[in-house]
Amino acid sequence: MAESIRREAPLPGDALAAELTWLAPRRGLRPGDEPVERLAATHAELRLQSLNGTWATRRLELAEADAWLAEADELARSIAAFDARARGRADERAREREELAAQIVPRCPYCAVPRAYAGLRRVVTAERPDQLSRAASDLARHGARGWHEYACPRCGSVELFDDGALEHPLPGAAG
C-alpha cells in the first residue's frame, strides 16, 4: 500500500497541513479508489487543513497534484533559504557584538583599574524623570529600563551600559 505524502505549513493557500494520496480505481467487486504508488495512479486526493483546523478534500488530476506538490516543495525551499540568510545575518551581528564587547574594558578613570560587573539594574521613572523607583509593581509596568552596572572596586564610581546592546558581563571586566 502506498503511503500518503504529508506536508506541514508553510503551504500554498495558507494551509496548516496537507496530505496528498495517489489513487487508482479499485479492482474487483468493490467500487471506489485505492491508494497506489505515483506511477500507477490515475488521480490524487488532496486534504488541506485550514487555519481554523477544519479539513477539506479535493480530487486532483495527476498534473494538478504534481504542480501542487512542486509548488509546496518550492515554497519550503524558499522559506528555508530565507531562514538560512536570516540566521547568517543574526550570526554576523552576534560576531560583531562579541568583537565590540571584547574591545571594551570598563576601567575607572580615577583609579585606572578594571571595574567589576555589579549586575543588571532595572529602573523606572515615576511621573517626572527625576523621580526613580525600583518597586516591583513599577517594574512590571511598561517603561522599565535596564542598565548593566560596572563599579570600581577601589573608589566605588559606577559606569552604566544600556541593556540589550551587548552581552554582559563584558570580557574585560574585573572578576
How would you sum up this structure, described in words?
By secondary structure, the chain is an alpha+beta fold. The chain folds into two domains: 5-97, no CATH class; 106-162, no CATH class. It has helices at residues 62-103, 136-140, and strands at 5-8, 17-25, 33-35, 43-49, 55-60, 116-126, 128-133, 145-151, 158-162. A hairpin with a 5-residue loop joins β4 (43-49) and β5 (55-60). The longest helix is centred in the middle third of the chain and has 42 residues, at 62-103. The mean pLDDT is 87.
Number of strands: 9
Outline type: rod-shaped
What's the number of helices? 2
Please compute the radius of gyration using only Cα atoms. 30 Å
| Poorly predicted segments | none
Order of helices and strands: EEEEEHEEHEE
Helix/strand-derived category reads: alpha+beta
Taken together, the total number of domains comes to 2
Q: What characterizes the major β-sheet?
A: 5 strands, antiparallel
Q: Could you report the average pLDDT, rounded to the nearest whole number?
A: 87
Q: End-to-end distance, in Å?
A: 66 Å
Strand content: 25-35%
Fraction of residues in H or I helices: 25-40%
